[in-house]
Design goal:
alpha+beta, six-stranded mixed beta sheet, six-stranded antiparallel beta sheet, 10 helices, 12 strands, 32% helix
Length: 323
Amino acid sequence: MDYIVFDLEWNQSDTGEEENAALLPFEIIEIGAVKLNNDKSLSDRFEQLVRPQVYKKMHYVTQRLIRLQMEELEKGIPFQEAVSDFLDWCGEECVFCSWGPSDLTVLQRNMRYYHIPPLGRGPIAFYDVQKLFSLTYGNKKSRYSLEYAVDFLGIEKDIPFHRAYSDAYYTAKVFRAIRNEKVLGHMSYDVFSPPECKEKEIFVVFDDYAKYITREFNDKDEIIVDKEVMSSKCYLCHKNLKKKMRWFTPNGKHYYCLAECDKHGLMKFKIRIRRSENDKLYAVKTMKYIGTEEADKVKEKKEHVRELRKLKRRQKHQNKDTV
């Protein structure tokens, strides 16, 4: 099995007025990658400029960041040819790795725009090296820049940053420095394509939390009445837990709940409702055992929601009295 450590550079609309801006918000203009074999030794490289077909003007932020001119991109090849070459180069037995969670989604969105078959049916497991670095060397929550990670690890900066190949090259160097097996167990999931049905939903247990990725639903009401989604089970002993705090939401997108297991302690449940590429909804549910300090933060969040609702009701009554 090979690790494909890749990076994309992309351009975007300067005005947002183009007809295809909504379908293709980011157009890939460069693909760079490093192939690592099973022991993480560098075995090959890939580098390709992509000729723009949608956005004919370089966005000023893109131009400042990667220092590419449109004239240079004209020497590239069409995306359809570039992605075909890239995927052939990757091979069938590989795991994708990237700095941050965006590249796989952008790649698949570009593929869909050109009617190219998707990378797979359902979520794709991959290594988010930015996340792995934070889990290993940071505070586990912050997301650091690639250059910060390179400097932190004392990696030689022998080529410039902010081009697709160079950023893939440095990401591979950081990835190779991460040896902690528990950290390497923290694979991420790209959900450009959510699970196709209930039987193919994702449920994975990491060393200190569990994650559940649902199939698509037509609307939010379907999600919040689904028994599996709204359940409060212990992911270790699989028992239904007694709720210490019922589900609540501060914004209609995130839902929280506290429950307690007699054997394992207090557990926090969090549901994030997301919109899929098919304009449907799916949920990502995380379950984690926590201490009293983190539980108090959840309680404070619920109290804040309660106070806001009281304030809105009060303002509504005042407005009625005024009328």
